[in-house]
Amino acid sequence: MSDANNAKTFRWWNIALLGFTTVWGLNNVINNFANQGLAVITSWILIMILYFVPYTLMVGQLGSAFQDAGGGVSSWVKALSNNKLAYFAAWTYWVVHVPYLAQKPQIIMVSLSWLFKGNGSFIKTSSPILVQGASLVIFLGFVWLASKGTATLNNLGSIAGIAMFTMSMLFIILGVSAPFITHVQIATPNMTDIHTYIPKFDFQYFTTISMLVFAVGGSEKISPYVNKTKNASKEFPLGMIILAVMVAVSAILGSFAIGMIVNSNHIPADLMANGAYQAFQFLGNSFHVGNLFVWAFAITNTVASAAALAISIDAPLRMLLGDADSKFIPKALSKKNKRGIAINGYKMTAVLVSILIIVPALGINGMNDLYNWLLNLNSIVMPMRYLWVFFAFMMLSKHIDSYQSDYMFIKNKYVGFGLGLWTFFLTAFACILGMVPKMNMAQDPSSWWFQLALNIITPIALITLGLILPAIAKRTNKDLDEA
Asked: Mean pLDDT, to the nearest integer, of 431-450?
């Protein structure tokens, strides 16, 4: 008994800080400001209350109920439903990383451009075909590197994660204080008028919700720590609420800081790609340190993206091949080389990501539009994995009497099921409306329609492939067993 108590060493502040570094980053602020301007501050408050807080507390109850399942979403689904749905959960978790992997080389190139050129001209002047060709080379290089093992990049990724957290905090402190310390002119007019912060709840607004959902997702990674928390029933929810407050404060102050630097009424088209660097450049000039902040952020972003690229080639694939029932996955995909790498799984990843790198460059005009489109695609596809968290919580609520845990978010099965259904619906709604391109249709109709087609076809194609694999497995695995 004493060993079990000794293992419960996490306190509420550990949970809050761990969650914050897992979930949050400066780019979440930049990307959503680019979509909504200063009105995003109201959106942040709404998304925290209506989505993020219940999401994180659901994760806590699931993690606590299945403390021996390693915290994997597919493990929860398997325990609460059946092996087939668990396979689809594992497949979804893996396949949503395809657009994520396709964008990381772009982020690395933008970072290196700022590091060596000191400006954002790269995203405005480069040919999409040329950049995507280079992206393909970078990506395939990392596939090769990941096949050799990623221990060094894992360590670098941890360091870069702490550095990115530090840069995010530095940005907020400097951004909010700059007008008062350096007396620079505030870029957005009427920042004291409440109407500046009220969104226009029209169709265009609802197409941007997916980016907010994308920004606050991923807290299921914290679930394994629920049962390591001292007095979990009280301290875990407190940690999660403090996490939500920290994210909300960072989002609101970060958006406020950007509003001081960038005019919310005239948002630059390249803000998603170049915004963080431009903001750090502005702050560097205001505090008379030149490009010091730009260089620090560029190096941090390059290393963090490189580490994430290598790790995300390997880790989600291991989860797919390890968690899912082998009868749904062709045995050939699990074939390993002498280093224990599922080499055919790597090849499948390489093919899918390569297609997603090259095909869009054939129909989207301009590197900036291509960058923004791929980021938007991530906001459509990545939240698809959150749907399985909410499905699992609905099933847990339905059979709540059979699953007791140290931490209970909601004990009433009907309220729990209803809340799970609400977050499931909101996620699906955001993903579907997020498919509408964010560019002006009148300026380039052919590119607009091409983006819409890709936004619809890509998730359908990725899900369909997951439906086909079990049929292939049924045939090929039987042949292999007979052989």
From this structure: 91
